[in-house]
Write a structure and sequence with these properties.
By secondary structure, this protein is α/β, with parallel strands linked by helices. It is 45% helix and 16% strand. The longest helix has 19 residues, at 276-294.
Length: 430
């Protein structure tokens, strides 16, 4: 294609696969990291997320979360107004007042995150200093942390990475190295976490923790005897900080689909020296059930073409799942950032000559998409409606982060998320 010729290539780290990585820089279409609050506040069940931002930030979080009817939500926005921007009011004093009022109203909060935004960064409001100051005041009542959810030069899943990185920094450093243990890193829905916990127990891996924990009071240990598995591919800073504590990452594909989940579990089993026969005994029935469920959606997906716009950083594992297990033709895999070390196992499983584009120039990518004419496009909400208006079937990438999609039991659900819009388009065309 002529449109791809001008993209500079980077071949480093792709030994054994004929897969060039194209670099693209230009206008981007992504959500900001504030969106991550929606699944983070469901995961850490005694935490509260206070966005320090504008009314636009508040509307974004409320729109992404939907309407909370039966329960008071555990997130809010401290609005930066004209008095703050003009320097008439002391922003730190105003923030202290809001935090005190919040904790007086909600004494059940055990961990409070001050979440930075584009506006708070523009006015140079130092939330890390504010968190340290407030921590001293509420020492015995609530832990107060801060991280940035700003959308400046980031994409929306990096909000989770920044949040978990702030949590790692709060974990006490052990004075004595403990027993060998496994840490699963990345937000997982409770049902998925419970499934993986049962699997690890049956496999014979006893000391397993999930990070972040469901409760902020739960103790997490990270030391030189910690082996960790990434459950999400967008946790670069969190992984770096964990490794600084001496932990070792277990290299594996991500647990999307039957084969991805099997390889992910097998990588951990190999580190623990558990026999292949025992592994097969534990997983065989689950694999068979998952493949049987997945088979229902294959007629709708096989030989269909798909392109990924860069948004969630899940694009490469999802492309592997759809091409390897669902028989789809992947035309382009756009991803905001590509961590080659973390994605090494995934890259080896992609079809040769896959087109991977790191970064985005949205107008050029739209031109390539129109030329490719894929059957379905995975993209952000900002591009979905315009593409649908052009007759191109789309899938919202953010839904793939909100939904339970990891593990054997969710393999068919993951396939259905792509089959459903294709089925809808087919029915509308008829």
């Amino acid at each position: 294609m002529n449109a791809i010729v001008d993209l500079p290539k980077d071949h480093a780290g792709l030994v054994g696969k004929n897969i060039p990585i194209y670099k693209e820089r230009g206008q981007r279409e992504v959500f900001c990291g504030l969106t991550g609050i929606i699944w983070l506040h469901r995961k850490i069940q005694d935490a509260f997320f206070l966005v320090v931002g504008s009314r636009t930030c508040a509307h974004l979080v409320q729109s992404a979360a939907g309407v909370m009817i039966f329960a008071e939500p555990r997130f809010a926005t401290a609005i930066i107004d004209d008095r703050d921007l003009a320097g008439i009011a002391d922003a730190h004093e105003e923030l202290d007042r809001v935090v005190k009022a919040l904790l007086a109203r909600r004494p059940d909060i055990k961990m409070l995150f001050l979440v930075g935004s584009c506006p708070s960064e523009v006015i140079k409001l130092d939330l890390s200093r504010a968190a340290q100051r407030l921590n001293k005041e509420f020492l015995n009542h609530c832990r107060i942390l801060s991280y940035s959810g700003s959308g400046i030069e980031t994409t929306f899943t990096q909000g989770e990475d920044a949040c978990l990185a702030s949590l790692v920094n709060e974990i006490p450093k052990p004075t004595v190295v403990g027993e060998k243990k496994l840490l699963v890193v990345g937000c997982l829905p409770d049902v998925v976490e419970d499934q993986f916990q049962r699997l690890f127990t049956e496999l014979g891996i006893g000391q397993v923790s999930f990070f972040p924990p469901k409760n902020s009071q739960q103790k997490i240990e990270i030391d030189g005897n910690t082996q960790y598995l990434l459950a999400q591919p967008f946790l670069a800073e969190t992984a770096r900080l964990i490794e600084e504590r001496g932990a070792k990452r277990i290299s594996a594909p991500f647990p999307f689909g039957v084969e991805g989940t099997t390889a992910w579990l097998k990588a951990a089993v190999n580190e623990w020296g558990i026999s292949s026969s025992h592994f097969e005994q534990v997983t065989q029935a689950r694999i068979e059930r998952a493949r049987k469920s997945l088979a229902r959606y294959l007629p709708m997906l096989e030989n269909k073409s798909i392109s990924f716009f860069p948004d969630s950083q899940l694009e490469i594992p999802l492309a592997r799942f759809l091409s390897q297990e669902c028989g789809m033709k992947v035309l382009e895999i756009g991803t905001p950032y590509l961590h080659k070390q973390h994605l090494e196992a995934e890259l080896e499983l992609l079809p040769e000559h896959s087109r991977i584009v790191e970064g985005q120039d949205v107008e050029k990518q739209l031109d390539r998409c129109r030329s490719d004419k894929p059957d379905i496009v995975v993209c952000g909400l900002g591009l979905a409606n315009p593409l649908e208006a052009e007759g191109i079937t789309t899938k919202w990438s953010i839904e793939l982060v909100f939904s339970p999609v990891h593990g054997y039991e969710q393999a068919a659900d993951l396939a259905e998320l792509f089959a459903r819009p294709l089925n809808r388009s087919m029915r509308l065309a008829a």
